[in-house]
């Protein structure tokens, strides 16, 4: 009898639990998405198979279509590299929203490959890519936590500071 009474009390509370509106969360964080730029070659920016979205590498593209460029450890500090990774996250979220229409369809950020344009003596690639990972958790909470690799590269296209690929699971 006590279990039934407890369920009668708890179920209405759980049923009224508010879902997080991820688009609204972006506004609260002061982040504005923008129309993504087209792919720069014979590929597409995202491929969907079932409920999985596979994103091509994105760089730190701003809304005005300029990029954060340079090598971390030479031209850019660690903090500037983190900002480049965060900006890359914004670029990826812009493509994601354009693809699915509503960020509330995101079930989980699954896998991320972060590449950092850096010197051969820079060893903090994971700290740079934390700029991206921290953004995903700030926006999506637990759904934003993902498996990840963070590696250093001698050079990235157009001398961009960071390039990131990701895999996202979405609802039907």
Task: Walk me through what this model shows.
This protein has a single domain, classed as RutC-like (60s Ribosomal Protein L30, Chain: A). Helix content is 35%, strand content 23%. The protein contains 4 helices and 5 strands; from the N terminus they run H-H-E-E-H-E-H-E-E. Helix 3 packs across helix 4.
Task: Describe the secondary structure blueprint for this structure.
Blueprint: H1 2-15, H2 22-28, E1 46-49, E2 52-58, H3 78-100, E3 106-117, H4 125-140, E4 147-153, E5 162-170
Parallel strand pairs: 3-4
Antiparallel strand pairs: 1-2, 2-5, 3-5
Helix pairs in contact: 3-4
Task: Supply the number of helical segments.
Answer: 4
The CATH topology, please? 60s Ribosomal Protein L30, Chain: A
- Return Rg in Å: 19 Å
Overall CATH class: Alpha Beta
* Helical content class: 25-40%
Strand content: 15-25%
Distance between the termini: 39 Å
Largest sheet: 5 strands, mixed
- The fourth-level CATH homologous superfamily is RutC-like
> Could you name the ranges where pLDDT drops below 50 across 5 or more consecutive residues?
10-17
| Category by helix and strand content | alpha+beta
Mean pLDDT: 91
Strands side by side in the biggest sheet:
1-2-5-3-4
Could you tell me the number of beta strands?
Answer: 5
Q: How many distinct folded domains?
A: 1
Q: How do the helices and strands follow one another from N- to C-terminus?
A: HHEEHEHEE
Instruction: Write down the overall geometry.
Output: globular
- CATH architecture name: 2-Layer Sandwich
